[in-house]
Each structure stands twice: as structure tokens, then as C-alpha cells.
């Protein structure tokens, strides 16, 4: 494809000031570093309902898929941070070493990337037939809480999400 179609517009080819952007972004520079871009807005999680309102659109149709553990990060004021990590192929029974290693890595992200030592985690145990206080969900919730306590890591919420229902297990 050539630019011939654009040249058909008389002002396109004759535009001497290419940096003049007519669709202004008031308050932002049109050139320069990326630091003038607006920051990604977070979502404040102030209730169990907020947790589900945050998680369900993220998980979407994966609610009907195979088991997974979804991990999100929040700052010290419980505003969501721009990190969501879905972990597929999660075993039905949690392995304590695996859970501890995962939470160690998430703690490192909170500390090293976001400088949020008082930040925390929002976790969702997702499986097709889940979404309530089943044995699988409760075993994962207990394993996650044990590992977090050993690491002095705050767990803001743990949810169970299934195809047809969802519930916050720990708030």
C-alpha cells in the first residue's frame, strides 16, 4: 500500500508542521520522554464485592477453563497495581514448596518493582467447578495463608472463582 490515498488530501502533503497534532491531549507534551504519559489508574479494593468486580472481568472466560491461580498485587492502600499473573496448570492439591516459592517471587516484585513493602496480594483459585468453599479452594487458601505468614507478606484477599459462581474466601 502506498501513501497515494493520503496525498489526495491537499493539506496532508503540504503540512509543514508535522508536529502540530490537532487532537490535543491537554496538559501533555506531544514530544519528549514517555514520562508525560498518564499513569495507569488502579482500582481501590475496599470490600469483598470490589475484589470480585476487579477479578471477574480479568479472568473472563477462563472461569470455565482448567484450574489456575490468578495473582494480583495491591499497594499499602489496597489500590491495584498493574500486575496480574495467571498461573495455569496449577495442581489440585497445593505443594507448600511451590506456593512458598511463588509468594517469594511476588514479594520481590512488590519490593523491587513497586517499592511497596506494605503492599499485598489478591489471589484467586480458579476452576470450572469451583467458586465456593470446596475442599480444593480451602486447601489452596490455607496453603497461601501459611506461606504468606512465613514470608511476612500481606494477603488482601483470596477468592474462589468458578464458571457459575464466585466468592471471596478471605478478606
Feature tags:
alpha+beta; 32% helix; single chain; 171 residues; Cytidine Deaminase, domain 2
Provide structural commentary.
- The protein has 171 residues and is of the alpha+beta class.
- A 5-stranded mixed β-sheet has the order 2-1-3-4-5, with helices on both faces.
- Strand 4 and strand 5 form a beta hairpin.
- The longest helix has 18 residues.
- 27% of the residues are buried.
Major beta sheet, strand line-up = 2-1-3-4-5
CATH architecture assignment name: 3-Layer(aba) Sandwich
CATH-derived topology: Cytidine Deaminase, domain 2
The major sheet is characterized as: 5 strands, mixed
- CATH homologous superfamily identity: Cytidine Deaminase, domain 2
> CA-to-CA gap between the ends?
55 Å
Strand content: 15-25%
**Overall mean confidence score, pLDDT:** 85
Rg is: 22 Å
| SSE succession | HHHEEHEHEE
The number of distinct helices, counting runs of at least 4 residues, comes to 5
- Percent in helix: 25-40%
- CATH level-1 class: Alpha Beta
Shape summary: globular
pLDDT < 50 stretches: 21-25, 34-39
Write a brief caption for the model.
The protein has one domain: Cytidine Deaminase, domain 2. Helices cover 32% and strands 21% of the residues. The protein has five helices and five strands; from the N terminus they run αααββαβαββ.
